[in-house]
């Protein structure tokens, strides 16, 4: 049976808009999503969809069809610690918190897909798992969800997800083949010297000077040790040390972040950061402590899964509305944890509309989405899941 999922999604557009605006008015952060996850559960209970708690305030729901093949669809739920400066009747009602990255739209789209797919579950030749993820903007709830076993019992064969994109016109989508997002490794380097009077530097070991050499030396990793055709970034975001102009401190802390596009480059850069830092510090008679944290991995689109998303989008909005993106993003995305475990596909849903002045960047005080994108997102998710199971 052929289903017109866009028509089905358009029929519930007003409901989608009202749901999204409710989430937008009441943003919550990180894992503190009691109201948000509570609202999601209300919808799931109303439709009789089986669900369980995961990753503290996350939710894993399942629509059981006829068969064992299983696809997962993911949406993130958390907002950002930002003041909403939009003037509209659905602006944030919570001071200092705002859905400035579209997660309210993502959650709404997944609920819309859940409602439609549940209504035709007798036609599904397998199962649909619904992943409502907390803390995407912080530590990544996806990792905890996977540790909780959401990809098992029944085993998930594929995962799909989306993100609204303010640089793509509403009615269009964008998809990047291969690597989509960078991996991230925040780091801290504590350089220990010997403090002394600023007039007698020979009596101490100056960690400020050592830190200066370390900062310059680390930039050579990307410029001289990674292939020039492959992207990578080492950013020093802060240097802290000292209390006065005429005092050489005994300690300086450097903090920064590594962004890489390949798993092998990620491991190489971490290794070289330690080797170079230790070498420079030792050469100046100092000591150091290096802490490199493991954050989000690279997000990879599986070729077959990505092609199936493209086919679903061709059917829903037409081939001329589907853009193949040429460049990956140096930003990170916690969907990457799913892509490391199962064949996955992640795409960008256009939400820009210059006529409506919906042009402002994500993570900004004026960010908004053209709500015409909501039924399109619902329809593509439904079509991709429906066809995969068939």
TrEMBL record:
Binding site for Mn(2+): 101, 103, 137, 163, 363
Note accompanying the cofactor annotation: The Mn(2+) ion enhances activity.
Domain (Peptidase M20 dimerisation): residue spans on this chain: 187-275
Keyword terms, alphabetized: Hydrolase, Manganese, Metal-binding
Keyword Manganese part of the UniProt annotation: yes
EC number of this enzyme: 3.-.-.-
InterPro entries on file: Amidohydrolase, Bact_exopeptidase_dim_dom, Peptidase_M20, Peptidase_M20_dimer
MF-aspect GO terms: metal ion binding; N-acetyldiaminopimelate deacetylase activity
Cofactor requirement: Mn(2+)
Annotated GO biological process: diaminopimelate biosynthetic process
Keyword Membrane: no
Name recorded for this polypeptide: Hydrolase YxeP
């Amino acid at each position: 049976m052929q289903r017109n999922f866009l028509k089905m999604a358009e029929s519930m557009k007003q409901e989608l808009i009202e749901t999204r605006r409710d989430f937008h008015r009441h943003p919550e952060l990180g894992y503190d999503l009691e109201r948000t996850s509570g609202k999601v559960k209300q919808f799931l209970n109303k439709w009789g969809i089986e669900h369980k708690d995961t990753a503290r305030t996350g939710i894993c729901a399942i629509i059981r069809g006829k068969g064992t093949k299983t696809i997962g669809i993911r949406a993130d739920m958390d907002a950002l610690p930002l003041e909403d400066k939009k003037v509209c009747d659905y602006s944030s009602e919570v001071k200092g918190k705002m859905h400035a990255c579209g997660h309210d739209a993502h959650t709404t789209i997944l609920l819309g897909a859940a409602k439609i797919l549940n209504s035709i579950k007798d036609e599904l030749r397998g199962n649909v798992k619904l992943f409502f993820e907390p803390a995407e903007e912080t530590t990544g709830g996806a990792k905890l969800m996977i540790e909780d076993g959401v990809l098992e019992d029944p085993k998930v064969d594929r995962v799909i997800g989306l993100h609204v994109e303010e640089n793509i016109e509403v009615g269009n989508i964008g998809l990047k083949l291969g690597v989509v997002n960078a991996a991230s490794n925040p780091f801290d380097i504590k350089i220990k010297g010997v403090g002394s009077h600023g007039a007698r530097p020979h009596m101490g070991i100056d960690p400020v000077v050592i830190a200066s050499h370390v900062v310059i030396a680390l930039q050579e990793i990307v410029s001289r040790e990674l292939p020039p055709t492959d992207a990578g970034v080492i950013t020093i975001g802060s240097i802290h040390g000292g209390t006065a102009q005429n005092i050489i401190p005994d300690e300086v802390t450097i903090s920064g972040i590594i962004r890489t596009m390949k798993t092998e480059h990620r491991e190489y850069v971490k290794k070289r950061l330690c080797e170079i830092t230790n070498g420079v510090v030792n050469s100046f008679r100092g000591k150091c402590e290096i802490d490199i944290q493991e954050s989000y991995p690279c997000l990879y689109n599986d070729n077959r899964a990505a092609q199936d998303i493209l086919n679903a989008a061709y059917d829903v909005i037409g081939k001329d509305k589907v853009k193949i993106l040429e460049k990956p993003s140096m930003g990170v995305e916690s969907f990457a944890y799913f892509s490391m475990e199962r064949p996955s596909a992640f795409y960008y849903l256009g939400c820009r509309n210059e006529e409506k002045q919906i042009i402002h960047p994500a993570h900004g005080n004026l960010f908004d989405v053209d709500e015409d994108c909501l039924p399109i997102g619902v329809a593509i998710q439904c079509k991709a899941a429906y066809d995969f199971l068939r």
